Structure formats: C-alpha cells, structure tokens
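The passage that follows is intended for readers who have already worked through the single-chain material. We present the inputs for a multi-component assembly, then the predicted structure in tokenized form, and finally a short commentary. You are encouraged to pause after the input and sketch how you expect the pieces to fit together before reading on.
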Amino acid sequence: GQNIDQPTEMTATEGAIVQINCTYQTSGFNGLFWYQQHAGEAPTFLSYNVLDGLEEKGRFSSFLSRSKGYSYLLLKELQMKDSASYLCAVMDSNYQLIWGAGTKLIIKP
Amino acid sequence: ETGVTQTPRHLVMGMTNKKSLKCEQHLGHNAMYWYKQSAKKPLELMFVYNFKEQTENNSVPSRFSPECPNSSHLFLHLHTLQPEDSALYLCASSQDGSGANVLTFGAGSRLTVL
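Having made your guess, compare it with the prediction:
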C-alpha cells in the first residue's frame, strides 16, 4: 500500500531551527508538496519538490531525496506564527495525492 | 472576494437532517475537490470535479451527494449522516485536474453529527 509518515507533533523554541521529516512509499512519484495549516484555517501551499535537492524560500526550505523516499521541511528563525500543522503529500504515478497525517508544530517563547 | 470560500463554517445536525455545504472559488480554476479531514488522520479525498464533470468518487457513502453546477461552485449535500461523519470538510480548487497542480483550500466547514 501507499504510505506517508511524518511525526505527529514537534516542539521548538522561538528563534531556533526545526526540521520536519516526511518519508514515503508510493506507487511512482510525481512530486512532493508541503502545506501549512493554522488551527481553524485553510491549508496553504508552501513548496513543491520534484527533483532531488534543496529548495529555499525565505525562512523555509524543502529537501527531497527520491532514492531514499525522504523529504524534510526546514524552518529557520522560528516565529510564534509558525505554530501550525505541516502536511506532507506525494503525487503518485497516477497523479493522485497521497497525504500524511500532518505534523503539529508548537513554538514556545 | 478572492480565494476559496466555504459556508457554513460550523454545522451541527441530527442524523435525520438534510443539509448542504457550499464552496465558491473566484480564482478561475477548473477543478474542484471535497476532502474530509479528521483529527490526526490524512486528508481523505472524497470527490473531484474537472470542468464540471465528476472525475473521482472515492467510494464515498451515498449519504454524501456532490453537485457542481458550474466551475465556480461546489456543493456537498448531506442526509442521514452518522456520528462518525463528524469532521472538517475542506473544499479545494486547482487550475485543472491534471498534473501536479497546487491546491487552494477553503477554511473548511466543521460538521458535528449528533
């Protein structure tokens, strides 16, 4: 079966760096997405990786290794507003999105 | 308004009620989606409409009935629901239903079935 694994919850300190991992086993691969979802709000698109390597976008970076079935989202200079759930999703060979259960990130002062 | 708008934001209904969820997008997108989000579970795709045609129905019980009158509007009609149907129902849209399109989500309708 197809599966996406990511930690259920993580805690980090304001100003620090946190890495949220996502591992996947899917039927084929057509890209990996990260979305951010604040409590009670819509998920919003953060990044899309289809080739190996690191993509940087301001304080957020996303990394992909297709051979290892692995991605991470790196958040630098954490701010209180980064407290949210982070959803990893992989597009399989049929362009179906397979979702992880999300990682709830708690930022402490 | 811009983006994807869902109404109502909160809905409480009994198992014998009939209600509808509404979704509207002003992004000029041609694909619209219904997802179910339950606590600590992955998003579950329910229905997909591409250019007003239903292209996906992921074995959703018939007590959920979608309707897509045009590319901007999507409804989810609910009847004789079960308590386990209580969840956040998210609507999303994308440019079209093919390829690796970015989804734009609404804030969801929180449904409680008593």
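Commentary: The CA atoms of residues 29 and 95 of chain B lie 4 Å apart. The radius of gyration of chain B is 13 Å. How closely did your sketch match?
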